[in-house]
């Protein structure tokens, strides 16, 4: 849903300003383990729409380091050689809808 807003007090404002509400599935619906990780992680996604899901992994600067699609609701993701640090996983359903996010630490 949306409503025009001038960004000051939520009252109607200038045309073209949009306020929206977006609610992906709670991250509790996505399990990622082990974390911290070294070479592979297991992903379990509950209540997915469709018969597959995809994962995009980005580094702390926002650069994509991995994208992969899986059939079913559980998968093992083998990681390429990555520098140690914090990475972010974004999960999408079959139709491209955002399911949620998770943080992982690569050791």
Would you mind describing this structure in some detail?
This protein is an all-beta fold and 107 residues long. Helices cover 0% and strands 49% of the residues. It has strands at residues 2-3, 19-20, 30-33, 40-45, 52-58, 64-71, 74-78, 85-93, 98-106. It has a four-stranded antiparallel beta sheet, with no helix packed on it. It is globular and about 35 Å long.
Rg, Cα atoms, Å: 17 Å
Query: What structural class should be given to the helix and strand makeup?
Result: mainly beta
- Which parts are unreliable, with pLDDT below 50 for 5 consecutive residues or more? 1-11, 17-28
Largest sheet composition = 4 strands, antiparallel
Provide the spatial order of strands within the biggest beta sheet.
Answer: 6-5-8-9
| Percent in strands | over 45%
* Silhouette: globular
Number of DSSP E strands: 9
- Mean pLDDT across every amino acid position: 80
Please give the alpha-carbon distance between the first and last residues: 41 Å
Question: Helix coverage percent of residues?
Answer: under 10%
Secondary-structure element order, as H and E? EEEEEEEEE
Structure annotation, total helices: 0
